[in-house]
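Regression test case RT-17, inverse folding.

Input:
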């Protein structure tokens, strides 16, 4: 029988009842960052113009926002961003993203009479872009109070952060934070002395890690964690395995709507955007190695192949390797081709996939970048040595120069390329963001005892509902099974159409 929380959730979400099925390391340390280097004064005007206004920081002063006292037009000062005067521009960016995020707009309309997150205090750590701003403001419409920090030091859109602050959100983030700034922002965001969060929305696990490390008592009143990255999910499973997970957690990363849409289609379109904006390189005929053939790797390979690049793939998983072979890519070890390739892209979620021994053998001008969430895929520590010289040539573009004059082109200091160096498609982000919002609703409204201190996967019924919210954009019409067909397949005519284990 459905609980009262289940009925509340289903009434808000869908006419068909959604039933959840229980499914069952320590945190990686960030390498020390010595602080942000000033941009080279020799950057050409054409190179700065090639950046979109939301990604370029070349025109902004280098002083830390921590040294400034800023207030919104309504007197709010509980935030720390680059420049509150950019709020109007950021608001236009958010409004433009809303046009491509239909699911969140539907959730807002359905919340007009009911606030499923009333009383929720959500502390979040994600990329702060126009798309995540639409999610944050949707959570507020659903009744939540929110405080937010950035999960990546390069991906924050400063104008969007200003618009969020002007709208009353306590946000602590700016583009180009130092490592110390990064953790300072997360600490201020948690606000343990003045504000007690009861929900966590995390991307990468850094916020969860910080609360475990510094404010573990907060978990006593916490209802749950929603995590959307492979890195963060891995950390949660490690905590669960060690018996240290204090609250239920939702694994959004492994939902179909994240894996098969955000990871694949978002990366398929944004990989080229990031590479083109930073390097101006023509990819027809270039030799490229993509490390990892998961959904992110598949998207990257498809985009590069379409431009005429010669693409190689590295893989540890024989199933993914076989998929790469049957898609027409040669599967090799990086060491086999590292001397000849023009571009190396990592997307594995692992660490030290590209080591110093590989970089020593790369040819002059080789482009090196990362499309995985974590900044550990490229061994950055081995590049910060006395024998190598760094030269900043554009925002997020460094030449790392060897003693013999050889140089490689390193993008975003090994961090996530697309969100650091370009923007991402709003429509695909709508799918993931809607899934995150529904996961928060379920965890927040679940009766005590439904979820234990473990990591849970989202049911396919929720994935299908999120997908259905986006079909009208394409004027797509679903075929409805008749009773005989549904009986033949052994499923309900209204779904779910896939079993919970389907990926």
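Golden output:
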């Amino acid at each position: 029988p459905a609980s009262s929380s289940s009925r509340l959730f289903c009434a808000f979400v869908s006419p068909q009842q959604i039933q959840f099925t229980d499914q069952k390391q320590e945190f990686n340390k960030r390498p020390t960052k010595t602080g942000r280097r000033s941009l080279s004064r020799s950057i050409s005007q054409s190179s700065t113009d090639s950046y979109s206004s939301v990604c370029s920081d070349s025109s902004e002063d280098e002083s830390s926002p921590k040294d400034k006292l800023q207030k919104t037009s309504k007197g709010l000062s509980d935030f720390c961003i680059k420049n509150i005067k950019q709020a109007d521009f950021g608001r236009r960016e958010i409004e433009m993203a809303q046009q491509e995020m239909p699911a969140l707009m539907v959730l807002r309309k359905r919340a007009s009479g009911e606030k499923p997150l009333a009383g929720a205090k959500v502390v979040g750590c994600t990329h702060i872009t126009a798309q995540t701003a639409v999610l944050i403001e949707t959570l507020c419409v659903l009744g939540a109070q929110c405080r937010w920090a950035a999960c990546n030091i390069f991906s924050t859109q400063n104008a969007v952060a200003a618009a969020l602050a002007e709208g009353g959100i306590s946000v602590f983030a700016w583009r180009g934070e130092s490592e110390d700034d990064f953790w300072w922002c997360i600490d201020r965001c948690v606000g343990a002395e003045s504000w007690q969060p009861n929900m966590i929305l995390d991307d990468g696990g850094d916020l969860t890690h910080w609360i475990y490390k510094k404010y573990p008592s907060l978990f006593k009143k916490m209802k749950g964690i929603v995590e959307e990255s492979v890195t963060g999910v891995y950390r949660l499973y490690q905590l669960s395995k060690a018996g240290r997970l204090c609250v239920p957690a939702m694994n959004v990363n492994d939902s179909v709507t994240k894996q098969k849409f955000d990871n694949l289609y978002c990366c398929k379109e944004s990989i080229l955007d990031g590479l083109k904006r930073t390097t101006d390189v023509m990819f027809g005929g270039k030799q490229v190695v993509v490390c990892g053939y998961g959904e992110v790797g598949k998207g990257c390979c498809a985009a590069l192949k379409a431009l005429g690049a010669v693409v190689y793939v590295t893989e540890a998983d024989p199933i993914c390797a076989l998929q790469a072979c049957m898609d027409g890519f040669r599967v090799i070890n990086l060491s086999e081709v590292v001397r000849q390739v023009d571009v190396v892209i990592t997307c594995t979620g692992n660490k030290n996939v590209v080591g110093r021994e590989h970089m020593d053998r790369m040819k002059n001008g080789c482009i090196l970048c990362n499309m995985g969430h974590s900044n550990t895929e490229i061994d950055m520590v081995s590049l910060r040595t006395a024998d190598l010289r760094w030269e900043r040539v554009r925002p997020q573009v460094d030449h790392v120069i060897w003693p013999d004059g050889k140089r490689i082109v390193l993008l975003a200091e090994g961090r996530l390329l697309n969100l650091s160096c370009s923007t991402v498609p709003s429509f695909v982000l709508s799918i993931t963001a809607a899934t995150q919002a529904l996961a928060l609703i379920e965890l927040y409204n679940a009766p005590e005892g439904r979820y234990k201190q473990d990591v849970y996967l989202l049911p396919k019924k929720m994935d299908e509902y999120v997908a259905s919210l986006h079909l009208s954009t394409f004027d797509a019409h679903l075929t409805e099974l008749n009773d005989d067909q549904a009986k033949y397949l052994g499923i309900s005519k209204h779904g779910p159409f896939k079993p919970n284990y389907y990926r």
